[in-house]
Specification:
173 residues, alpha+beta, PH-domain like, 2 domains, 3-stranded antiparallel beta sheet, elongated
Length: 173
């Protein structure tokens, strides 16, 4: 067996991206990973600060609180956003938008343009900073009546909105 260990690690880490490429999906913008990491940092920061407070109280031997919390926070900030990013993708055809997401629970949603009620392009502060947007398609119905596609360039989201809107007008005439 002449397998290079570094090659195996690289193949494993790119497995989700290769799956998306095989499915003909378009990947989200790379800046989406940065946004996910900032959100993960904001989630993990209170836990790290809490473990630092417990560490300074000297209730247990040094490192009992901070070490596991720091390791979990690093995993949460570095690895999880990358996996979440690679687990998402989309494909837009002439009459529908397909959105795929999920690590543990995969979701593959196809929205025919004829079912779209209205379209939103949303940007939060982080998305504005990185020039990204979330495209939201609202459909008829009450359960899962909207599909969100985050992590795409703002100008691409606006262009997709106009393309979908032109299809909606054509189908209602």
């Amino acid at each position: 067996m002449n397998e290079d260990p570094d090659k195996c690690v690289a193949e494993t880490s790119d497995e989700a991206a290769q799956t998306a490429a095989r499915d003909g999906l378009t990947e989200l913008h790379p800046n989406h990973v940065k946004i996910l990491r900032i959100q993960a940092f904001m989630f993990a920061a209170p836990f790290v600060l809490g473990s630092l407070v417990l560490e300074t109280a000297r209730l247990m031997p040094t490192g009992v609180f901070i070490l596991p919390v720091l390791l979990a926070a690093l995993f949460l900030i570095i690895r999880v956003p990358l996996r979440r990013h690679h687990a998402r993708g989309y494909a837009m055809s002439d009459d529908r938008l397909r959105v795929v997401r999920g690590l543990l629970f995969r979701s593959d949603t196809v929205v025919p343009f004829g079912r779209v009620q209205h379209i939103d392009v949303n940007q939060g502060p982080l998305e504005r900073f990185y020039n990204l947007a979330t495209l939201t398609l609202h459909t008829a119905g009450s359960h899962n009546a909207s599909v969100h596609l985050p992590g795409i360039l703002n100008q691409d989201a606006l262009a997709m909105r106009e393309i979908i809107r032109s299809h909606i007008k054509r189908e209602t005439l």
